């Protein structure tokens, strides 16, 4: 079954006539833009079949998707930040279960409202304002989740010391696949062991841990008429709030990182002494992302280049206690 046919069959379970369906991409989900012909309202359909086994996890289970929809609905209803609204199917459910003889297991799908705008890029006319606003938006998200008490327990990924242990074990296969040398792997492991010690320090702090976005990159930040919005909460889960600051910082050009942190600190607590922790969490984020692709030889080529750049310079600097925040 081709993607468009699959999307048509799943969309038939929603209250549309004969919508226009446009394939977007296949990554952690298969995504489509859906346009209602009657009112021209647009939506994004996500069929939760990851392109590679590395993306499999609790986030793609029924319980995980149900939890993601609960969080998005809360963020949308309370106008915490600009996010997409989950849409119910004809049965009144946010998570659609579609059975097909084409697949061994049921397909799970979710539908969200479309967010108008363009993805954030370094070509932005006023990048300084955008970086500051991104910090404010992220702070608003964190301040909300610090006090958010879901009615039921959420099933979402956890990014903690155990996730680092998993990554260290999983990344050994990168040596076997000649993506990096044993010496480079040992460097990666030394960095992650250092980060684990940092996490123990963060555990002693009040309000350092909670629900985060966990996948902040240019493609997941939408800007429209000067307003920023966050999309793609597929990998959202529980971790240290500084993890989000790390992933957001690493996507921004060096000259706008301080502005971003200023935006964050204008709405939430942050001290510059925490840059050392952010550095560690950036490394954690990078090496966890290796795990998504490392066993997929059609998609793991970039790891070889990235590991060579990191292991021979910034990893060693970090281990030696040098500041690398503005270089990562």
TrEMBL record:
Signal peptide: none
InterPro entries: Aminoglycoside_PTrfase, Kinase-like_dom_sf, Pseudomonas-type_ThrB
Coiled-coil regions listed in the entry: none
Residue ranges of domain Aminoglycoside phosphotransferase in the record: 24-266
Family, per entry: Belongs to the pseudomonas-type ThrB family.
Protein name: Aminoglycoside phosphotransferase domain-containing protein
Organism: Paenibacillus donghaensis
GO molecular function terms attached to this record: amino acid kinase activity
Domain of life: Bacteria
Database matches in Pfam families: APH (PF01636)
């Amino acid at each position: 079954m081709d993607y468009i046919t699959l999307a048509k069959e799943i969309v038939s379970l929603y209250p549309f006539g004969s919508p226009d369906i446009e394939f977007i991409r296949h990554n952690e989900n298969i995504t489509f833009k859906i346009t209602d012909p009657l009112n021209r309202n647009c939506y994004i359909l996500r069929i939760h079949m990851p392109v590679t086994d590395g993306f499999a996890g609790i986030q793609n289970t029924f319980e995980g998707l149900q939890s993601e929809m609960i969080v998005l609905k809360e963020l949308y209803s309370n106008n915490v930040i600009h996010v997409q609204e989950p849409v119910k199917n004809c049965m009144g459910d946010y998570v659609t279960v579609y059975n097909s003889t084409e697949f061994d297991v049921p397909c799970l799908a979710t539908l969200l409202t479309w967010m108008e705008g363009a993805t954030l890029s370094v070509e932005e006319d006023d990048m300084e304002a955008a970086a500051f606003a991104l910090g404010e938006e992220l702070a608003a998200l964190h301040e909300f989740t610090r006090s958010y008490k879901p009615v039921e327990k959420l099933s979402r990924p956890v990014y903690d010391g155990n996730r680092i242990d998993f990554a260290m074990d999983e990344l050994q296969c990168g040596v076997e696949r000649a993506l990096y040398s044993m010496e480079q792997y040992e460097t990666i492991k030394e960095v992650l062991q250092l980060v684990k010690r940092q996490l123990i320090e963060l555990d002693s702090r009040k309000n350092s841990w909670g629900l985060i976005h966990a996948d902040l990159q240019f493609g997941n930040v939408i800007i429209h008429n000067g307003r920023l919005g966050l999309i793609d909460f597929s990998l959202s889960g529980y971790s240290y709030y500084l993890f989000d600051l790390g992933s957001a910082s690493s996507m921004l050009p060096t000259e706008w990182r301080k502005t971003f942190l200023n935006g964050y600190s204008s709405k939430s607590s942050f001290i510059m002494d925490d840059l050392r922790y952010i550095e560690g969490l950036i490394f954690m984020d990078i090496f966890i992302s290796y795990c998504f692709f490392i066993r997929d030889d059609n998609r793991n080529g970039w790891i070889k280049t990235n590991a060579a750049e990191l292991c021979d310079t910034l990893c060693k600097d970090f281990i030696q206690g040098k500041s690398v925040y503005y270089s990562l």
